[in-house]
Amino acid sequence: MQEANEKDKIESRSRERNQVVWVRTQAFAALLLFIVFWTMAVCAYRVGNQRTDAELPGELIVDLNDATQAELNLLPGVGEKLANDILKYRDEIGGFHSVDELMNIRGIKEGRLLSLKKYVTVSGSVTTRPLDRQSR
Fold it and tell me: How far apart are CA 20 and CA 40, in angstroms?
């Protein structure tokens, strides 16, 4: 009788351990599924928010010397950070003289410049900065 009682205890402990392992396995699987679906959602969001030339208004021309951040954000490949960098550079130099000056901004290389050229222009509204006489 005592042997049967101990055997029942061992089987009971074994079942409890199996249940704990099963619960942990389910929790791990749920966490793994969550991570996979979250990653897929983030990737889909990023891909879905990329602008293509076909989505841009047909007559979109942005003047680099008068553009706001919102207008720069409409350009393909230009997000908030790059728009801010363009505005900061424009303020530092007093305005653009040429569209090619965009190459002086970090993040704009030849390929991006080529895709932007059909959407940007430079007006004559450039402010000149006084020379710093001490730097001579």
Answer: 30
Q: What does the DSSP assignment read for 45-78?
A: HHHHT---GGGS-TT--EETTT--HHHHHTSTT-
Within the chain, where are the H helices? 2-48, 69-73, 80-93, 110-117
Residue range 17-36: mean pLDDT, rounded: 90
Q: In this structure, is the dihedral angle defined by the CA atoms of residues 9, 14, 17 and 18, taken in order, positive or negative?
A: negative
pTM of this structure: 0.53
- Residue among 128, 98, 135 at smallest CA distance from 113: 98
Q: What's the average model confidence in pLDDT over 42-71? A: 72
pLDDT interval class at 131 (50, 70, 90): very low
pLDDT for 57 equals 56
